[in-house]
Design brief:
Layout lengths: L15 E5 L6 E2 L3 E15 L9 E16 L5 H7 L10 E7 L5 E13 L10 E7 L5 E3 L8
Antiparallel strand pairs: 1-2, 1-5, 3-4, 4-7, 5-6, 6-7, 6-8
């Protein structure tokens, strides 16, 4: 609808990902076919006298892991970037991932850990896989999409 931010339901493929060494060098990743998101939350619990046996809780930490799977596409900048991290360790295995939601919101992970979990293999008649986890490393930046009326 002109003049409003998108609303409603969307197919999963309208989520888009870009990767790179920094937010200035982001590229889309060709031939990725699925992803999943896992949130890991740390909740501290305590039992104060004034709650008469009822537990108090406070969420004190969060992390996000995005697992992506697809096919290895040699020559695609995003695909080559991820595959190039397969044998890296330490800070060399860190990079940037940008997740754009169907409504235009963006979640940016800078310094995220790229854990390449499948870099090839499979039956002789299948396409070479590329599978990886992107693990938050500090707080990501969340930017809401601008309403088209305000642009």
């Amino acid at each position: 609808m002109p003049g409003t931010t998108k609303t409603g339901v969307y197919p999963v493929y309208e989520n888009q990902f870009k990767v790179g060494a920094s937010k200035e060098s982001l590229n889309e990743i060709a031939d990725m076919v699925s992803f999943s998101v896992a949130l890991d939350n740390t909740v501290e619990e305590w039992n104060p006298f004034d709650q008469k046996g009822w537990i108090r809780r406070l969420m004190t930490a969060k992390s996000i892991t995005i697992s992506v799977s697809g096919k290895r596409n040699y020559g695609d900048a995003g695909n080559d970037y991820v595959a190039g991290l397969a044998l890296k360790n330490g800070r060399d295995a860190e990079g940037c991932l940008q997740w754009t939601f169907p409504n235009g919101d963006i979640l940016l992970f800078e310094g995220a850990v790229f854990n390449v979990t499948n870099w090839g293999g499979g039956d002789s008649t299948t396409v070479i896989p590329l599978e990886f986890d992107v693990m938050s490393n500090g707080k990501p930046t969340y930017t809401e999409a601008e309403d088209e009326e305000s642009t």
